[in-house]
Amino acid sequence: MALDLDTDRIHQLLHDGARDKIYPGGVWAVGDSRGTQASGSTGVLDPERPDEPMRRDTVFDVASLTKILAVWSTIGSLADDGKLQLDAPLGDFWPEVSGRPLAQVTARRLLTHTAGVPLRANLKNLYGTDPQDVRDGVLREALHRQPGEAVEYTDRAALILGYLAEHLSGQRLDALAADRVWGPLGMTQTCFGPLSPEAAARCAPTELDDSTGTHLKGRAHDFSARLLGGVCGIAGAFSVLDDLTTFLRYLLAPNQLNASPGFGTDWIKESLQIHTGELTPPRGLFWHPAPGTTPEADDVWVHYGFTGTGMWVSPQKDRWATLLTNKIYFTRDREPLAQVRNTFRSLVFA
């Protein structure tokens, strides 16, 4: 049975967003534990090539969706393997942070953005351009506040967890994610950049790069990811609509698919519930309740990417959705896309 969706209103909403230059174009899909039930595309890949429409196989710089696709998923696999205890102080088992301010922090605090680590990445200014110097600096940095005091979203949480996953697995984050998550799920077009010329040709361009005078295409928009060679916990992954729909469907049906990524039902269930008590805004493990919803009444969880990407999932409603745009091509102003996203979510999870 198909989902009860007003696809005409979804098409119109996303068409109007492209018309109003909130983004050049976008692709979307909605589904449940059985698979994709509706999908579409709107607008163009690149405003400089107005005859080339946005397509289902367009490659997107997913920005902070990297935090879910690469970090949350691999941390979950390490937790499910018994290699990581979420509430153990990092200094108890990670020599790189032993004796440092991070020693008292736990993985759970990082996953809920309550660890008290600095709010800005600011990696190059603080630590230079050598990746090892950046890693050393990040893992030795003083805390911004005491752990557990406040919920404050920071890219550093995912950067540190990416380093932790590398320490526990003995693999670089790109190899770990490919081996434990993307490969088993058949997400064959998900990878860290920079992309090959062939993949970059299908990539939605992002922001203008002042150093070259052209829009970034196949190289991460996120400066920290570019500084670190394209691979880090903050951002840097590229993906396509079909890969994300596979990932989201697995979250709703981990026992129904012929796939065995490292994380399973327990990790998914634990992540999609509030872990921040009375603190606001409420947080799960990297996922958070969608704006305008409450976990009790709606059970709709979301994560966004700065380039214009987003993923939603609701176990209670047996429904998932994703909307991929390259809104950063035009502007960093978040509000116009926020309105589109919130309306999209309300149409999908009505």
Describe, in plain words, how this protein is organized in 3D.
It is a single chain. A six-stranded antiparallel beta sheet has the order 2-1-11-10-9-8, with helices on both faces. Strands 3-7-4 form a three-stranded antiparallel beta sheet. A two-stranded antiparallel sheet has the order 5-6. It has 350 residues and is of the alpha+beta class. The model has no long low-confidence stretch (mean pLDDT 96). It has helices spanning 7-19, 66-80, 107-111, 123-127, 131-140, 155-169, 173-185, 197-201, 223-227, 241-252, 265-271, 335-348, and strands at 25-32, 35-43, 60-61, 191-192, 208-209, 214-215, 237-239, 288-289, 301-305, 309-314, 319-325. It contains twelve helices and eleven strands. Helices cover 34% and strands 14% of the residues.
Q: What is the approximate shape?
A: globular
Oligomer: single chain
* Tally of individual helices: 12
- Terminal Cα span: 17 Å
Order of adjacent strands in the largest pleated sheet: 2-1-11-10-9-8
Radius of gyration: 19 Å
The topology string of helices and strands comes to HEEEHHHHHHEHEEHEHHEEEEH
Q: Major sheet, described briefly?
A: 6 strands, antiparallel
- Proportion of strand residues: 5-15%
Mean pLDDT: 96
Low-confidence stretches: none
